[in-house]
Amino acid sequence: MLRVLSTHLFLNHRLHPGLLEIAGRSGAQAVEIFAARQHFDYTSREHVAELAEWFRSEPLEPFSMHAPLYPDREMGRAGAPGVNVLHPEKSRRIDAMDEIKRALEAAEHIPFRHLVVHLGERTDGWSPRTIEYAHTALEHLGAFARPLGARLLVENLLSDATTPEHLMLILEMGHLDNVGICLDLGHAHITVGIAEAVATLGGRITTVHVHDNHGQKDEHLWPGDGTIDWPAAAKSLKALSAPPAAVLEIHYNLNDDHHALGRKIEQGFARFE
Fold first, then answer.
1. Which pLDDT score, from 0 to 100, does residue 107 have?
2. d(CA 136, CA 100)
3. Contacts for 37-40 with beta carbons within 8 Å, 24 or more apart?
4. Which domain holds residue 163?
5. Which residues contact residue 250 at a Cβ distance below 8 angstroms, ignoring those fewer than 6 apart?
6. Are the beta carbons of 9 and 212 closer than 8 angstroms?
């Protein structure tokens, strides 16, 4: 499996080359850039150019980008609405797609291959309109991403709209053959279980978000700090015809020194060896 570190690890800090160098020294072969304005300001030409210049001279690959979840710098804590392409109000759906396209434009300079997209938020339910809105968003965003060299990946969340079964139904009914899946192992552990998720999504799985929890809430712990059976999870994934990229997506605040952080990253990737 390709070893990818999500910059979600550094979410409360401005993303700069020094943080990317930690990823490279810790065994990561690539990174997934988390598009949150306080972390990576995809609307800033200077910030995009700074990272693009670094990637051009380094072996670490900008493998993917996680689409923004909020349009502000405070992750919605000041009242900004979430980026929700399934929202009942058409204006909100349009605003959400526009915000995601702003992030996608960074691919002109930082050549990431995949964009991970959330279909809605945790409270979104399942209905015929869910399918309609999802098709519209994925077709629109896919057409925008394609000339930039990026492929969309939809992620299983904790909502009824994004169970593995419903994600497959959305993709198959819409004939969205070019859209892949980012299987979030932590979310699967809380909902249907990892083995069932892998069995349902199968060859559509392109990447997996790797983090742990205790089966109750989305904690984004280091692998081994929760209750996921990692040997069983690794066995299920290795049975796939094409190995997905392993994206370590941890919630962390940088309290430990960088040497300790590097060891934890290495140990996280080792769960899949």
1. 98
2. 14
3. 37/68, 37/71, 37/72, 37/73, 38/12, 38/14, 38/73, 38/74, 38/75, 39/7, 39/10, 39/11, 39/12, 39/13, 39/14, 39/15, 40/7, 40/15
4. 72-208+230-244+260-270
5. 6, 8, 9, 211, 220, 221, 222, 268
6. no
pLDDT tens figures, 3-35 = 999 999 999 899 999 999 999 899 999 999 999
Integer Rg of the chain from CA: 17
CA distance 184 to 218: 11
Note the Cα 77 to chain centre separation in Å: 21
Residue 83 maps to a domain: yes
CA distances from 123 to 4, 59, 265, 270 (A): 29, 40, 32, 34
Contact 173, 182 (CB under 8 A): no
Into how many domains does the chain fold? 1
Report residues of the chain scoring pLDDT below 50: none
Tokens of 143: 């057409």
Domain at 86, CATH number: 3.20.20.150
Max CA-CA distance within the chain?
50
